[in-house]
Every structure is written in structure tokens, then in C-alpha cells.
Design brief:
heterodimer; A: mainly alpha; two-stranded antiparallel ribbon; globular; B: mainly alpha; two-stranded antiparallel sheet; 5 helices; 2 strands; 69% helix
């Protein structure tokens, strides 16, 4: 414990360095903006802005991106409350009570509650993160290639079991991400693979950013344009700094709900397929169940704003736990962060804690500071952010497209990648319209090379005997849990069918 | 096209793409090499085979009407969606194609001019401000700060005085 505190103190010092502090503030502001824009969330902001982080050293770059992640979780509530449109999918549940409050002229109360609950969620989660990360990383040091591979299998299985999307479409999404990751030179034999039409651009493989920016930049923008028809309106919002600060003391009304949501959100966030959106929805449901006035939910209960906001912030921190300690991202945003770390020459996973402690603890330290900064910036600039929301889409959309095009070009400096990104954007948009989940594909393209190398290394070590995955306790446990997760939707369906039948017989 | 038809068409197209990927993978060894495990082509081959199976499952579920999409007879793309999405996609296509001939910066300016003035119908102050401001910002950020040269095609010589200032 003493060690952890020492390391944390070092991390806080690192995060307080002028450059890092600047990155935290800039990241929080940009995150709040991105989060507040309808349709754009942390994943879009991180994907689009990752290429520009090459300006600063990796330590500061990850701090910047994590601050965007954090800020976006705060920002999502702003449009949920003032526009009635979730700023990001993570803030869907905030609309349920946020909008009725805004329509009743209490937008200031709702916005303050969202900010305060986000702060509670962030704080509780970052403390839990500090406590859990070092022991988990130490445990994960025992992992060899077979454990790594089965852990990834488990991450993919969570998408099937908990993702809630159509199963064949989810599996397709995972597989296509893995295939895209295998394009280029074979990692073991060096043979060129899947080089279509002998186009040399495929030789260096498909950078995960090309897929991420295509899907989360171009595809998402097309989707948002379709959904909003390019028109957004701010409803009935009367805001002043005074009224926002006046409502800070209301925190006692929802402190308990926010605390419960934070703990729940943190643990749900650590699961790869779950993340902030289901965490927020679950927290909302829980708050309603435990409330003394469940009927007031959906009509403007302040706890209905606090519960999901605390949970989505906590989940965003939670999703960083498996990314940093195991190298398995807990959300699409952390998948992109993980890809970024690989570009910077860092291998996420347990060794990161012993080989680059300044990096890990600098990041953890920055989470504490980013949480506080995001709260202050949010409270002070709420009226400004609400104004930004009225920015017409015909200005926002071309700016985002341009950032995507230039950002897609920057990593490899070939137009080939920009064309691929455009293609992924269009196909991703069409697939999304047909309910194909896109997050598993992004996670898979990031994990693809690691998954393949760990599988082949394991098989090389066992001289081609696949039993290696069943003979070790950790791998066997992972495989059994993965199987259970894959079977879960089918079992649930059968159970529901059985229950319905039983009810029918009872009725007749 | 209805959502129902689109669901089937997409599954068939993705299925064909999976077959294409499987065929391409067979250019390398896809078999099990004794004492070494799978060959270089095995990983993408079997993943693509899995993709094909998923597409088959989607088609079967379509026939059985299991998914929401397979029962949805609404239009996949309404006229308004085609207009709003098509214009954006078309403008992006122009931006990427024009980059080869007139360079990224000029293409960006034309793209912004079209989007902001023609689609957005903003006034000239906003249009000119954005049309000049965004490329200047991109230049400063990428070329100056990040030292990443962006494609300029025939406009390359226009930048020589700037390069002299920068380097």
C-alpha cells in the first residue's frame, strides 16, 4: 500500500509538469466539446485527434487522450439535457430525466447535477483503479502466450454474450477486424499476405487508425447527419453562472445514488463489451429500483441524471484497467488508446508497470487531475458549451471530414490509406444502418496481431498441439468462461421461451 | 430498396467478400505444418471461412424472419437520406480525387467552399474565413509542427517560399 502511495505521488508530480498539465486542460476542453456535440463521443474524438498527438512525447500524448476521454464523459450530458439528444451513446440514459428537467426550466440544476455526479463517479473509479491495477498487473506477469490468447478470446466472447447485438453480425464484425489486421507481412514467416491487386500500400498492413477514423469519423458523421438531418435546436435553456453554482449544494440529494452508480459503473466498465453505455443504463435502472419515488423517474428526477452520469464516468476509468494491466481494452476508446501506445513503441500489459512506471503512474496521476479539471471547466463554461451546440452542422461536418482525411494520411503518408478510410467509412455507415456492431471490429483490428502471434507462439511451443490451451489453469478458466458467455444468449432465449410456455399452460 | 432487401444484399456481398478473402489466403500455406502449427495463410483463411458462415447464418435468419431488419419493409435510404449522405460522400470523393491533380490544399478549399456556401448557405464572411482558415490551420499543425508533408501535386512550387521560411 505504501509503495502504491509513493508511486501515485510520483505520478501526480509527473501529471503536474507544465506540459502535461497543459495537455490535461486542453484534452478536457476538447473532450467536453466533442462529448457535447450530438453524435460525437470520446471514441470519435480520440480517433480523430490521435494523429496530432505525435507532437508531444508519449507520456503527454496518452495523458491528452485520456483527458479527452474523461472530458467527453462530462460533455455528453450537456446535449442530452439541453437538446434532448444524447451527446454520445454513453449519455442516452441522461436524456430520460435530463430533458424533462430542462423542459421544466431546470436545465441549470440538471447540468450541475450531471457535472457533480460525473466528478463523484470519476473520483471513486480512479481510487478503485489505483487499488486494483498494481495487484492485477502483478498477477498478469505470470501470463505467457497461451494465457494472452485465451484472454483475447474471452474479450471477444464478452461481445457475443453481453453486447446485446445480433450474434452472427457480432461474430462477423470480430472476424473481419481480425482479417483486416492480418493483411501485410506475416509476423512469423515474413510472407506477404492478402496483397490485393499487388497494391504496395497493403504491404505495410492496415493501420487500425484507418479503420477507426473511417468508422468513427466519416461513418459516424454520415450517421449523425442522417439522424439529425443537419438540424439541432437548443430548448428552453436559461443559464447563468450564479444559478449553476447555487445548485452545487444540491449534491446531497443524489450523493448516495451517484456513489452506487460509480461502483457499479466501474466494474461494468472493466468488461470489454459492456462499457459506459450499459453501465449508465444499469445504474439508471438501479437508482429507480432503490428510489422511494420510482414513479418520478422519467419525469425529471434529479437522481435520474446523477445515476447514469456517475456510472459512465466510472466506467470510462474502469475500462482502462484491463487495457493497462492485461493489454485488453475495455472499450472502443481504450482500444484506440492501446493502438496509439503500440505506435509509440509501448506494449500495454503487465510489463508496462515494471518497465515504464513513469508512464503508467503519470497516466493514473493525470486521471485524478483531469477529473478535477473537467469538473471546474465544465461548471465554469457550461453557458459557452451550450452556445457551441448551436454551431451549424454545415460548419462542423466539413471540419471533421477534413481532420479525418488529414489524420488518415498522417501516420503512413499514403493516399492509399485515405481511400481505405473513406471506403471503411461508407461501408461502416451502411453496415451500421443494418445493425452490424462496429466496436468489435475496431477492438479486433487492434488486438489482431497480438492474438495471432500469441496463438502461433503457443502452438510453436507445444509443437502444434492445441491441448496447450486446455492444460493450463488460467487458459482453461478463460475458455470455460468464454464458452459460457457465447452460450448465454441462447440459454437466456430458451429460458424465456420456457417461462412463456409455462405461463401459457398456467393461464389455460 | 427496403431494409429487408438491403439486409439480404449486404449479407450476400459480405459473403462474396469472404469467399474472395478465403481464395486469396490459399496463395499461402493454409495447412497444419507438423510440429509448427498453422501455415501463414491459415489464420486469415479460417477467419474468412468463419465470416462466410456468419453470412450464411444471416441469410438463413433472413429467410426465417428472425432479425428486425429481415421483417422491416421500410425504405433503406429515404430520398432525404440519399441527398444528405450522398452529397457528403460525393464531396469527399471529389476531395480525395482532386488531391492527385491540384493538391490537398486547393482541394480542401474547394471542398469547404462547396460545403459551407452551397450546402450551408452561410454568408461570405464565414465562407471565406473557413475556406482560408482551415487550410492554414492544417498547414501549421501538420507541416510546420508535426513535419508531415501533405500531398500538393501541381501546387508544390507555391510552397517553396514557405519552406524557406520554415527550414
Amino acid at each position: 500500500m505504501g509503495d502504491t502511495l509513493n508511486l501515485l505521488a510520483g505520478g501526480l508530480m509527473e501529471a503536474m509538469q507544465p506540459l502535461n498539465l497543459g495537455m490535461i486542460i486542453l484534452g478536457c476542453v476538447l473532450g467536453l466539446l466533442v462529448g457535447a456535440m450530438p453524435g460525437l463521443g470520446s471514441v470519435n474524438g480520440v480517433a480523430i485527434l490521435l494523429p496530432i498527438t505525435f507532437l508531444v512525447p508519449p507520456n503527454s500524448a496518452i495523458i491528452f487522450l485520456a483527458a479527452i476521454y474523461y472530458g467527453a464523459m462530462y460533455g455528453g450530458a450537456i446535449s442530452s439535457i439541453t437538446l434532448g439528444i444524447p451527446g454520445a451513446s454513453t449519455a442516452v440514459a441522461t436524456v430520460f430525466d435530463g430533458r424533462p428537467l430542462a423542459l421544466a426550466g431546470k436545465a441549470d440544476k440538471a447540468l450541475t447535477a450531471a457535472a457533480m455526479a460525473s466528478f463523484i463517479g470519476g473520483t471513486i473509479a480512479v481510487v478503485l483503479f489505483t487499488l486494483f491495477a498494481p495487484p492485477l498487473a502483478e498477477f498478469a506477469l505470470r501470463f505467457g502466450p497461451p494465457e494472452e490468447f485465451t484472454l483475447m478470446l474471452l474479450a471477444f466472447a464478452t461481445f457475443i454474450g453481453l453486447g446485446g447485438d445480433d450474434i452472427p453480425k457480432t461474430i462477423f464484425s470480430i472476424l473481419i477486424g481480425l482479417v483486416l489486421a492480418s493483411i501485410g507481412l506475416d509476423i512469423i514467416t515474413g510472407a506477404p499476405r492478402l496483397i490485393f491487386g499487388d497494391i504496395t500500400g497493403f504491404m505495410h498492413g492496415i493501420n487500425f487508425l484507418v479503420l477507426a477514423i473511417g468508422i468513427y469519423g466519416i461513418g459516424e458523421m454520415l450517421w449523425t447527419l442522417e439522424q439529425t438531418k443537419g438540424k439541432v435546436e437548443v430548448h428552453n435553456v436559461k443559464l447563468s453562472m450564479k444559478s449553476i453554482f447555487k445548485h452545487i449544494k444540491d449534491v446531497k440529494e443524489y450523493f448516495g445514488t451517484a456513489t452506487m452508480g460509480s461502483v457499479l459503473g466501474y466494474f461494468v466498465g472493466t468488461l470489454p463489451a459492456a462499457g459506459a453505455t450499459p453501465a449508465a443504463l444499469m445504474s439508471y435502472g438501479l437508482a429507480k429500483t432503490f428510489s422511494k419515488e420510482p414513479d418520478s423517474f422519467g419525469k425529471g428526477n434529479i437522481s435520474g441524471v446523477a445515476a447514469p452520469e456517475a456510472a459512465n464516468n466510472a466506467a470510462s476509468t474502469g475500462s482502462m484497467l484491463p487495457m493497462l494491466t492485461l493489454g485488453i481494452p475495455g472499450s472502443p476508446t481504450t482500444a484506440i488508446l492501446l493502438g496509439g501506445m503500440i505506435i509509440w513503441g509501448l506494449r500495454p500489459g503487465p510489463l508496462l508497470f515494471s518497465e515504464h512506471p513513469e508512464f503508467v503512474w503519470g497516466l493514473i496521476g493525470s486521471l485524478y487531475i483531469a477529473n478535477l479539471m473537467a469538473l471546474i471547466i465544465n461548471l465554469v463554461f457550461i453557458p459557452f458549451f451550450v452556445k457551441i451546440l448551436t454551431l451549424p452542422f454545415t460548419i462542423l461536418a466539413p471540419t471533421i471530414y477534413i481532420l479525418c482525411v488529414v489524420g488518415g494520411y498522417a501516420p503512413t503518408q499514403t493516399m492509399h490509406d485515405v481511400w481505405l478510410m473513406f471506403l471503411f467509412g461508407i461501408v461502416g455507415y451502411l453496415m451500421r444502418k443494418l445493425d452490424y456492431p462496429v466496436a468489435p471490429a475496431v477492438l479486433a483490428i487492434v488486438l489482431g496481431p497480438l492474438a495471432e502471434s500469441s496463438l502461433r507462439q503457443s502452438l510453436l511451443a507445444s509443437q502444434g498441439n492445441p491441448m496447450i490451451f486446455l492444460e493450463r489453469p488460467i487458459t482453461l478458466t478463460c475458455i470455460l468462461i468464454a464458452l459460457a458467455l457465447v452460450m448465454m444468449p441462447t440459454v437466456q432465449k430458451m429460458f424465456r421461451k420456457y417461462k412463456r410456455k409455462a405461463k401459457q399452460t398456467e393461464d389455460s | 430498396m427496403t431494409v429487408r432487401t438491403a439486409e439480404l444484399v449486404m449479407a450476400i456481398l459480405l459473403g462474396l467478400a469472404s469467399i474472395g478473402l478465403m481464395t486469396k489466403s490459399t496463395e499461402l500455406n493454409i495447412t497444419w505444418i507438423l510440429h509448427r502449427g498453422p501455415g501463414a495463410g491459415a489464420w486469415p483463411f479460417w477467419l474468412s471461412a468463419g465470416m462466410l458462415l456468419c453470412c450464411l447464418a444471416i441469410v438463413i435468419r433472413w429467410f426465417l424472419g428472425i432479425t428486425l431488419e429481415s421483417r422491416n419493409t421500410e425504405l433503406f435510404m429515404t430520398r432525404e437520406t440519399v441527398r444528405i449522405v450522398g452529397v457528403s460522400a460525393g464531396a469527399l470523393l471529389f476531395l480525395l480525387s482532386a488531391t492527385y491533380f491540384i493538391g490537398l490544399y486547393l482541394a480542401l478549399m474547394l471542398f469547404l467552399l462547396f460545403y459551407i456556401k452551397y450546402i450551408g448557405r452561410h454568408n461570405w464572411t464565414v465562407t471565406v474565413g473557413m475556406t482560408i482558415g482551415v487550410p492554414v490551420f492544417i498547414f501549421c499543425l501538420f507541416e510546420w509542427a508535426l513535419k508531415i508533408p501533405l500531398p500538393k501535386a501541381i501546387t508544390e512550387t507555391w510552397f517553396y517560399p514557405l519552406y524557406e521560411l520554415m527550414y
